[in-house]
Amino acid sequence: MLLVCVSDDSTTLPALRRSRRFVVNFLAGDRATVARRFASDLEDKFAGLACKPTAEYDVPILIDDAVAYVECQTVEEIQAGDHVIVIGRIEDGDHMPDRSALVFRGGVYKNWHEHADTDNWHEHADTDSPASASRGL
């Protein structure tokens, strides 16, 4: 099982509810701009990105931007404050072992391989990060 938390006012939530299927694309370490795009309220978050549909459910895999993906079927939704927790059963997935993953910690996007061994990620802050900008880094 895998869960995702989606804001009640997200433009993504209606599509998740209609299809009852979703993919979680784990982004590559140099794809912070793609992460920001999907965190935004853009109507078509996939516009201009290279995608291919999954074999089983025809949901988009970000072929140039992901290090891995999991394809899920929604099994339950739980209302939690101003978010919906969508629980999915993993049906399929794959990974690209030659790529490093993007991680988000303490308001900072980083490449996993470059910073996995450091305890203080803020020393290496991504100055394009909204959280970094608010801290003056």
Can you give a write-up of this model?
- It is a single chain.
- It contains 4 helices and 8 strands; from the N terminus they run βαβαββββββαα.
- The protein is an alpha+beta fold and 137 residues long.
- Strand 7 and strand 8 form a beta hairpin.
- The N and C termini lie far apart (37 Å).
- It has one domain: Electron Transport, Fmn-binding Protein, Chain A (Pnp Oxidase, Chain A).
- The strands form 3 sheets. The chain has a 4-stranded antiparallel beta sheet, covered by helices on one side. It has a two-stranded antiparallel sheet with strand order 3-4. It has a two-stranded antiparallel sheet with strand order 7-8.
- Helix content is 18%, strand content 40%.
**Helix and strand string, N-terminal first?**
EHEHEEEEEEHH
Percent of residues in helices: 10-25%
Q: Give me the CATH architecture, please.
A: Roll
Q: What is the CATH class?
A: Mainly Beta
> How many strands, which pairing sense, and closed or not: the largest β-sheet?
4 strands, antiparallel
Specify the structural class.
Answer: alpha+beta
Radius of gyration, in Å, reads 16 Å
What is the count of distinct domains?
Answer: 1
Within CATH, the superfamily carries the name Electron Transport, Fmn-binding Protein, Chain A
Principal-axis shape = globular
Terminal residue distance: 37 Å
Outline the secondary-structure elements.
Elements: E1 2-7, H1 13-19, E2 21-27, H2 32-39, E3 51-53, E4 60-62, E5 66-80, E6 83-95, E7 102-105, E8 108-111, H3 112-115, H4 130-135
Antiparallel strand pairs: 1-6, 2-5, 3-4, 5-6, 7-8
